Amino acid sequence: MKHELIHDWNTYTGAEIPATHHVALNDETLRDGLQNPSVRDPSIAEKIEILHLMESLGIDTVNIGLPGAGPRAYADTEALAREIVTSRMKIRPNCAARTLKNDIQPIIEISEKVGRPIEAATFLGSSPIRRLVEDWTVDHLQRTTEDAVKFATSAGLPVMYVTEDTIRTDPATVITLYSTAIRAGARAVVLCDTVGHATPRGAHNLVNFVIEEVVKPSGEEIRVDWHGHNDRGLAIANSLAAIAAGADQVHAAALALGERVGNTPMELMLVNLRLLGLIEQDLSKLKQYSEAVSKATHTPIPPNYPVVGRDAFRTATGVHAAAIVKAYKKGDQELANSIYSGVPSHLFGLEQIIEIGPLSGRSNVLYWLEKRNVPATDELVDRIFAAAKQAERIMTEVEIQTIIASAAAPAKTR
């Protein structure tokens, strides 16, 4: 939007995240997202369709499964890896695995079958509360970490090392486990807010701590990832705070799917990164991606869901509609898409929709008719406007068309 028309307090003292900061995204929809208790596990055809939509959105990496979980998980993971290779996709695959050889071995096998290294996302619990429940010691976790990472790297797999519940893990254990993983060959570390405990300040503190106390002292080129959950409704804010602290990649899942209330929502990360100028790719298929995941997992999209919900760019309020119509009449789509929206719909292949309802003004009716090339006679406008004022909700297309047909019908003679 033209800068002189919008004073942006978000960047009043300078952007928190420099526009030159490269941010990558890892899509967890087809693995971590499917742990949501209410979802249906999509067919492999549906998963492949979603994979191609991820590619079209410029998503960098994708978790294609935990093949050690069983025969179907193994088969789907192999099929997705093969699709990436045969379709020559840019998106890079990774697989989840506990820090156990039995979980890592299937990733090695699939990698060899498809002829492409697959990053192993080896994970284990780390927080004091988890250690108490499991009767684990830090020494045990350190040995487990070293053995697993060395096993994967010796087979030629790149490794991203993950600790669950990092946000509630003490500093000494964080340093011990991540330093051990890096020495063993991991070249990416993932910091997790597994139970949605973090605030933006906490996410920033943890990422900054790991960069300063683990990554820099290692002397290695290490990618730092943030993996957040949404239990407090802070997943997007936490992810942006992690990026501001120096995180290189953020994990997310379509429609915030995942354990309990879910992970960071991927579609909203894409929207926010685009609006912050941190990514530039074409996001015109964002709604198609979200709807494909919704259909495949049997997860309805709430009407008021940001950007991809049915009502995101839809209004029937007279004052709002009138301003949008005036902006359109100036011949300025960007102005029309910004006057009553903080998210310009055209950036995501969408448009403002003006409906007619009890809170509408005559401008709603005039615009609705004009969009459909229906002559807006005073009589017709009056009829529709009167009906809208008596309605309890937004009028449907059929209801309005019925009034139009009635107004156009010749008067009956006796």
Please provide a brief summary of the model.
Helix content is 45%, strand content 11%. By secondary structure, the protein is of the alpha/beta class.
Give an account of the 3D structure:
This protein has 414 residues and is α/β, with parallel strands linked by helices. It has 2 domains: 17-297, Alpha-Beta Barrel (TIM Barrel); 314-408, no CATH class. The chain is 45% helix and 11% strand. The protein is built from 15 helices and 10 strands. The chain has helices at 44-56, 71-86, 101-114, 128-134, 138-154, 171-184, 200-218, 235-245, 266-275, 286-297, 318-329, 333-338, 362-371, 378-390, 397-408; strands at 24-27, 61-63, 92-98, 119-125, 159-164, 188-193, 223-228, 249-252, 314-315, 353-354. It has an 8-stranded parallel beta barrel with strand order 1-2-3-4-5-6-7-8, surrounded by 6 helices. A two-stranded parallel sheet has the order 9-10. Helix 1 links the parallel strand 1 and strand 2 (61-63). Helix 1 packs across helix 2. The longest helix has 19 residues, at 200-218.
